[in-house]
Amino acid sequence: MSVVKEFKEFAVKGNVIDLAVGVVIGAAFGKIVNSLVTDVMLPPLGLLTGGIDFSDIKIVIKAADAVKHTPAVSMNVGLFLNVVIQFIIVAFCVFIAVKAINAIKRKDIPPAVSDPAPSKEEILLTEIRDLLATGK
After folding, report:
1. Contact status, residue 42 vs residue 54, Cβ threshold 8 Å
2. 54, part of any domain
């Protein structure tokens, strides 16, 4: 089988297409969560903490030098906090979605029906059959 045929089979399989759709939807969902955190959740949280904008929280390691025209070197703790909050929201949403899908799957699978135990007559007939087969 040629490499082109193998690649075509690989690319057309449902799993690859499902993965591509998942990546596109995930990217769009990431933008929604980013807006939710940045535009909806953090402003009231900043208001509760005295008007602090979390994206402005920084730890300055080296101050800017106007003479040498070098920018400040800082750790952007607030931006990191925004990303952590976004991650927690995305992880929670994925958890809820997986939990819902698992609940639906459990409803779709019928419970296993076990064979009823053989009656006393069936056991006795089985023993008689086995004795007759052995010739005793």
Report:
1. yes
2. yes
Q: What is the pLDDT of residues 3-31, one digit of tens each?
A: 888 887 777 776 777 788 888 888 888 88
Which of 32, 40, 39, 42 is closest to 93 using CA atoms?
A: 32
Quickly state the pLDDT bin for 111 (edges 50, 70, 90).
Answer: low
Quote the domain boundaries for residue 39.
3-110
Sign of the four-CA dihedral 88, 90, 93, 99: negative
Which CATH number is 41's domain given?
1.10.1200.120
The closest of 25, 27, 49, 45 to 37, measured between CA atoms, is 45
Residue 61: helix, strand or coil by DSSP? strand
Both structure tokens of 50:
């005295």
C-alpha torsion 105→106→108→113, nearest 10: 140
- The 3-state DSSP class for residue 76 equals coil
Cα distance from N-terminal residue to C-terminal residue, the chain:
62
